[in-house]
Design goal:
Layout: H1 2-23, H2 42-48, H3 50-62, H4 67-73, E1 77-82, H5 84-93, H6 104-112, E2 115-117, E3 128-135, E4 142-148, E5 154-155, E6 159-168, E7 171-176, H7 185-191, H8 196-204, H9 208-213, E8 217-222, H10 224-231, H11 241-249, E9 252-254, H12 259-265, E10 267-275, E11 281-287, E12 293-294, E13 298-307, E14 310-315, H13 324-330, H14 335-341, H15 350-354, E15 365-370, H16 372-381, H17 392-400, E16 403-405, E17 418-421, E18 426-430, E19 436-438, E20 444-454, E21 457-462
Length: 470
Amino acid sequence: MNKANNLFKSFLMLFIMITLVSCDDDDGTFFNDPGQPDTNTIIDFVLDNFSDYNLLYEALLKADGRLAVELRNGGPYTVFAPNNAAFSAFLNANGFANIDAVPTDVLSQILLNHVVSGTVESTQLSTGYISTLATSSAANLPMNMYVDTSSGVTLNGVSSVTLADNLVDNGVVHLVDAVIGLPSIATHAVANPSFTSLVAALDAAGLVGTVDTGGPFTVLAPDDAAFTTFLDGAALGDIPVDALTQVLLNHVMDGVTLSTDLTAAGAGYANTLATGAGGNSMSLYFNTSSGVSFNGVSTVAAADVVAENGVIHAVNAVIDLPTVVTFALADPNFSTLVAALTDSRLTTDFVSILSTADGTDPAPFTVFAPTNDAFGDLLTELSASGLGDIDEPTLNATLTYHVVGGANVLDSDLSDGFTVPTLGGNITANVTGGATLTDANGRVSNIIATNVQAANGVIHAIDKVILPPL
């Protein structure tokens, strides 16, 4: 019987050698001289079990990149090998009549999603993410696979190892019961038990399909502990669907933003899919001075989980919809402004006012926010050693000249000679040669950063403090 199996295997190998070499005469790497010693490679293992894995072998031969060649001559590799039943189920589920009906580029990526570099035996597998040889079309990086070892070994929540540790000369083969399709962001969220609350929230908001087939996206994914803190004893169903939808969209950015992109930038603002006052895209402040944090309230716990349609960064807190106060507190460039707004001598509670929800008088707000350097220049101008040297009426009046109530004024709304009706009085905007604000004393402030959009208004950073009439 062994003789018959060896003869069958030799016939298959000879047939494939002739077929592939005839298609690619300049590459003789598929098989070595027929007289070479017997080998026990990944491909040999598949051929030895041909009756159960002929569809896998057929797929390897059809795929781009000469995968059969690589799995015989290259390595070491760890292969999660789906049997015929798994391939048949995959073909039926995706409407393919047979292997030939699957586009070769798609087939190649799916097969590569079953291959990991190196020899990884079952004892070396642990719950968490590993990288496969498949490449995300969105991120152009190796695709991640979620391994769950809590009960056997499950891959991306869809395929289980049925027989592990089939050691071969160039790696190891683990037999699995389902084809592991290319994971979407939704796939990873569903597969990882740390994201059960996130998946429930996405489902309640009708957003599962968006993160499954849309994109590319960067998703900041709060874990279950983050949702428990956010809900604070309430049930997910207690949150109105429209509000929940906006909170979830505030964790999603268009395109792929990796942790290295954020680190290289250091700090700054990005846009999320949530909408702020005026229907404008919500801003998100990130800072990498100590880890990677967002809006000063949420920190990345695990970065760069790569899916076919984007990337996930796990975060330790839900990022609620920001107010203009949120951004002032989060951005260290506004620390002196925060100190001024919270000065205990003030008769106006600016923080409470600027935290007012959109649609409630006097929100929305347009805030012209002086930077720390702007306040430093003001103290020099006034020969003051600190904010405490500025009397309360002057400080209170000064702050009112930086806030417009009842309007979300973007930089595109400004024009030359535009009258800006602040809570303290009118100032004048001009845009020729760069956007500026001129106060009643003829002092000119340059607008140096624009359109930081919050849920209840918008912030523009300025380089000089606006003063009331002196």
